[in-house]
Design a protein that fits this description.
single chain; about 300 residues; alpha+beta; four-stranded antiparallel β-sheet
Length: about 300
């Protein structure tokens, strides 16, 4: 029992079914067909018919019909769940022509890899910004019994869990972080992909499904804030570029003053040193080319 008094899910587990090679049973069917043909022809052409030969014909026809009802094919990366009146009897994963008792039912299921690209969904990131997300997931069935009997429709279950996992991951991380202090959806694709795959594996374990690969295929701000966020990103990029430019300009001015002083090219007092620093900063940080003024007179 689980919390609330509801009964717990009866977890299924895949087991190997007791089946036979279809080629052996096909050979037996041909032998029975030949025996019935011999008995029918010999009895039909004889002057006196023998009852046991007609019994052989009837018995061979009945057994042959039952044998024919037990044949089925399994393609590569395919399996067949065997049931007896609703009771699970195992799974056959052997490819080719197979045979099982005719009163046992076979339900085929593909175990090959499936690729799904989810629909775009709107999510609020860790900072509350509405964003659009979509994911690509490669999944496959590993336990056929769980996929068939523990969930209603395992394919619909996969799609629903992908959407739930994408929403969970999207709300856990911010879309972007220009300070590079946090893991972000835009800047840390590998880390986010690992977290998404881990979350999906946990969610799909009840259906006997594993995830081989996953990642985000679409990530963008929602249309209602896309324009504002674009202007914000542009402003932050301009500020970051300016800060880098000023940092480089200060280093160049410092290097120029140090070399002038060490090589004793010119002696500058504090006032003219400040003027020189101001002029150099204007030249280095200006967006347009400066027009120099050449002084042909004395320094003072």
């Amino acid at each position: 029992m689980v919390d609330g008094g509801a009964p717990a899910l009866n977890r299924s587990r895949e087991t190997r079914a007791q089946t036979q090679s279809g080629y052996l049973m096909l050979l037996i069917w041909f032998l029975l067909a030949g025996l019935a043909l011999w008995a029918g022809i010999s009895n039909g052409t004889a002057e006196y018919q023998v009852a046991w030969k007609w019994a052989v014909v009837a018995g061979s026809a009945l057994v042959g019909f039952l044998i024919l009802c037990g044949f089925y094919l399994i393609n590569p990366n395919e399996a067949a769940a065997i049931q007896l009146f609703g009771s699970y009897k195992g799974t056959d994963r052997e490819t080719g022509l197979r045979w099982v008792l005719p009163w046992l039912t076979r339900k085929k299921i593909a175990v090959r890899a499936n690729n799904v690209i989810s629909e775009k969904i709107k999510v609020n990131d860790a900072r509350g910004n509405p964003i659009e997300m979509a994911a690509q997931v490669v999944w496959r069935v590993t336990d056929t019994a769980q996929a068939l009997f523990d969930v209603d429709d395992y394919k619909e279950f996969v799609l629903a869990q992908i959407e739930a996992a994408v929403r969970s991951i999207g709300s856990r991380y911010p879309y972007d972080d220009h300070d590079h202090h946090d893991i972000t959806l835009r800047g840390n694709h590998e880390e986010v992909g690992v977290e998404l795959r881990k979350a999906l594996i946990e969610r799909l374990d009840v259906a006997g499904i594993t995830v081989d690969e996953c990642g985000l295929t679409h990530l963008a701000y929602a249309p209602e804030i896309a324009g504002a966020m674009l202007r914000r990103q542009q402003a932050e990029a301009v500020v970051a570029a300016r800060a880098k430019l000023v940092e480089g300009a200060v280093s160049m001015v410092e290097m120029a003053l140090t070399q002038l002083s060490e090589k004793q090219v010119v002696e500058l007092d504090d006032e003219r040193r400040a003027a020189m620093v101001s002029n150099l900063m204007v030249v280095l940080c200006g967006e347009r080319d400066t027009q120099p003024i050449v002084n042909t007179g004395s320094l003072y």
